[in-house]
Amino acid sequence: MTQFPTRDFVDGMPALMAGGANVIMQLALPAVGYGVAESRVTSGQATRHPVKRARTTFTYLSVAMFGDDNDRSLFRSAVNGQHAQVRSNADSKVQYNAFDPELQLWVAACLYWGSEDVYQRLHGPVPAEHADAFYQYGARFGTTLQVRPEMWPADRAAFEVYWTEMQQRMQIDDTVRDYLDGLVKLGNIPAPLRRLFAGFNKFVTVGYLPPPFREQMRYEWTAHDQARFDRLLRMIALVHNRMPPAVRVFPFNFFLWDMRRRVRRGRPLV
């Protein structure tokens, strides 16, 4: 494994707050959006099994960031079993296949972009001496599944070209927009919890969204909203940056531990 100091660049709870925005970015690519919205793998649907879906997603991120080669291989095999069922049919409006490495590359690119965005909002720019290594480490979000190492843009400049070009392909139609808006409004959790947290979840999700994706979702965002969001992040940074390292990366360290525990006990990983 690389000696890149991963834990110094992972902020657990702030990353979870940004998770909804990252999902929107991923699903803005129509083949990804329809692949998720139409998925016939009911056991992994966020709308039906939000806790299980969240556990699988967080475990994947934990394994990609902190796992060793064995962890990544085991989790890849488990996810492949689910992805094998996610493919379009003759009636699908958009053609997709969850094994398509180009689609997985876009998802990985969103995860890398999001991780850098969260870091910068809390700490400022990634230090120059770590910027290239931080970028190359981001490839693990894709290579943990079917993305081949040579598919990852060669350097940060190449990534910016890829990122700009891919945004021209983003299109969130009513089907995917309704699906995503339901998740943003926490329509998949019990009503008492939804009343408590839906407003905050939408606020931070829209706050973390880059403007082009915000516009695709037809979300309004004012200068006053931005000022409130900036104040919130300053408060979070003030507290978060004083926490011990193990607390700062939580819950990703927990989900990696849980994954390894499941392996030892012979329990399913997804």
Distance between the termini: 24 Å
Tally of alpha and pi helices: 15
What is the strand tally?
Answer: 0
* Main beta-sheet annotation: none
Morphology call: globular
What's the rounded overall pLDDT mean? 92
Radius of gyration over alpha carbons? 18 Å
Percent helix: 55-70%
H/E series, N to C? HHHHHHHHHHHHHHH
Strand percentage lies at under 5%
Structural class by secondary-structure content: mainly alpha
What are the low-pLDDT stretches, counting only 5+ consecutive residues below 50? none
Describe this structure in words.
This protein has 270 residues and is mainly α. The chain contains 15 helices and no strands. The protein has helices spanning 12-17, 19-27, 30-37, 50-66, 69-83, 101-123, 128-137, 140-143, 156-167, 174-184, 191-208, 211-216, 223-240, 245-248, 252-265. Helix 2 packs antiparallel against helix 6 (101-123) and helix 2 (19-27) packs antiparallel against helix 10 (174-184). The longest helix is centred in the middle third of the chain and has 23 residues, at 101-123. The radius of gyration is 18 Å and the shape is globular. The two termini are 24 Å apart. The mean pLDDT is 92.
Task: Summarize it.
The protein has 270 residues and is an all-alpha fold. The protein is built from 15 helices and no strands.
